[in-house]
Amino acid sequence: MKVVKFGGSSLASGNQIEKVFQIVMSDPARKVVVVSAPGKRFAEDQKVTDLLIECAERCLSNLDSQEIVAAVIKRYATIAEELQLPSEIVSEIQADLEARLNGDRCKPERFIDSVKASGEDNHAKLVAAYFQEQGVEATYVNPGEGGLLVSAEPGNAQVLPESYERLYSLRDRSGLLIFPGFFGYSKEGEVFTFSRSGSDITGSILANGLKADLYENFTDVDAVYSVNPYIVKRPKEIKELTYREMRELSYAGFTVLHDEALVPAFRAGIPVQIKNTNNPLAPGTRIVNERDNTNGPVIGIASDQGFCSIYVSKYLMNREIGFGRKLLSILEEFGLSYEHTPSGIDDISIILRENQFEAELEEEITKRIIAELHADEVKFEHSLALIMVVGEGMRHNVGTMAKASKALAGASVNIEMINQGSSEVSMMFGVKEVDEKRAVQALYDEFIASVTV
Ligand code: ASP
Question: Which residues belong to any copy of the ACT domain (predicted)?
Fold first, then answer.
């Protein structure tokens, strides 16, 4: 039995939904279909989720949102027309959206979540209606009724462990189950969404809960590429990689799959297959627990911009008990989360996402670190890119770091910092954003382009 998830671009138009129908029907093992909200049909198009967020925000600011509501409804109406569905389905969607917009606004973030979630909820109803029109037994499943319970964290919900057992009973239902992605219900019965692109997470949770044999994730690329195709032309496709490798890569910029979407499938030992709705015969990429390391130490190179580092140095830092804890607790008090902490004997760098703070905060943090920890130097560095070189094979290969540094030196890239993950599955390089592309190309040439297998 397979759980199969389709992303927004796979469901953006009537034509795309017809492809989805063919794919689902071509394999009787495909039992649960997880759907996203309608995505972009072309580069400048707008995702329904983005429209819904804008709409909810305007309502909260008491601004007119009629135009955006109309744009959302038009998207569904166009799809319904293309699929020759009865117009009642569009009236139902409109009534549902209006009811949400007239709902309780006392807790703004919850209001936004309820409006946001309508994108997938209504699309799942539309897709189910289309399948039914084709004479197929297909039922829309509401996540609350189906058993998907989540924490009450707006825009960032986490699945509650008891969901898995509840979801298992969905196996007994007959026919195809059409399940909206991206949200679940709290114990109090309120809607909460996962973080953006969270339908991937729903699919993984369902695969785990229903004990599927495979989780298929359909998107709009043939495979996971070994590097960002916007940086390196025609990069190699990855046929197979491990959960850990994929997690590292998606964390640092591989957007094919949400970085939190692997854990539920991984815990249940269910392989994940990435496939292309527009080219379903392409084999895609398989994500598994273990693989043969036959193609060199590195499987992929990811990079992401928008980081900064706080460099703190103090003579004899290594001997001072509690230094790290005190430093991190200052950041905690400011509500900041950090990504990495490479360190030396007398110094430590803390790498954070830059979008977390404004200039004033920088000054305050510096003052506190100096006053409370008596640091010799505190320095912020901005506009950093992190490059992750990822591969299980690095554990067994000698000299990977040396080769990487040499490749970067050859491309005249100054390495701002290095961090080798304790798992030895990844190496991280911090470089200036302006050097990012050159650095990635050099590492790709060194580790991937040169491997012939
Ligand atoms: N529609 C949601 C988003 O755009 C969730 C998803 O597509 O996975 O973030």
Answer: 389-453
Angle 14-25/66-82 helices, nearest 10 degrees?
50
Task: Give pLDDT tens digits for 357-405.
Answer: 788 899 999 999 999 999 999 999 999 999 999 999 888 788 888 999 9
Residue type, position 35, single letter: V
Q: Whose CA is nearest to atom 8 of ligand 1?
A: 197
> Residue 250 has what pLDDT?
84
Instruction: Please indicate whether residue 40, judged by its CB atom, sits closer than 6 Å to ligand 1.
Output: no
Q: Which residues contact 231 (CB under 8 A, 6 or more apart)?
A: 303, 436, 437, 440, 441
Residue 70's nearest CA partner among 43, 98, 89 is 98
Burial class (CB in 10 A: 0-12, 13-18, 19+), 138: buried
Distance CA 27, CA 250 (A): 29
Binding site for ATP: which residues? 5-8, 219-220, 225
Report d(CA 450, CA 296) in Å as an integer. 10
Q: Which residue did the predictor score with more confidence, 40 or 422?
A: 40
Name the superfamily (CATH) of residues 300-449: VC0802-like (3.30.2130.10)
Residue of 38, 30, 48, 35 lying closest to 14 (CA atoms)? 38
Closest CA to 137 of 129, 126, 145: 129
Residue ranges per structural domain of the chain: 2-220, 300-449
Taking each helix axis from N to C terminus, what angle separates 48-60 and 88-101, rounded to the nearest 10 degrees? 40
Q: Return mean pLDDT, the chain.
A: 94
Q: Give Dmax (Cα) for the chain.
A: 75
Architecture of domain 2-220: 3-Layer(aba) Sandwich (3.40)
**DSSP bridge pairs for 140:** 178
At 361, phi and psi to the nearest 5? -65, -35
Question: What is the Å distance from ligand 1's center to 362 Cα?
Answer: 33
CA dihedral 436, 439, 445, 447 (to 10 degrees): -100
What are the respective helix, strand and coil percentages of the chain, to the nearest 5? Answer: 40, 20, 35
List Cβ neighbours of 417 (8 Å cut-off, separation of 6 or more).
Answer: 309, 342, 349, 351, 428, 429, 430
Instruction: Read off the pLDDT of residues 44-58 as tens digits, 9 standing for 90 and up.
Output: 999 999 999 999 999
Give, as one character, the DSSP assignment of residue 36. Answer: P
Phi/psi of residue 322, nearest 5 degrees: 90, 5
Neighbours of 168 (CB within 10 A): 14
The binding site consists of 5-8, 49, 120, 219-220, 225
The pTM assigned to this predicted structure is 0.87
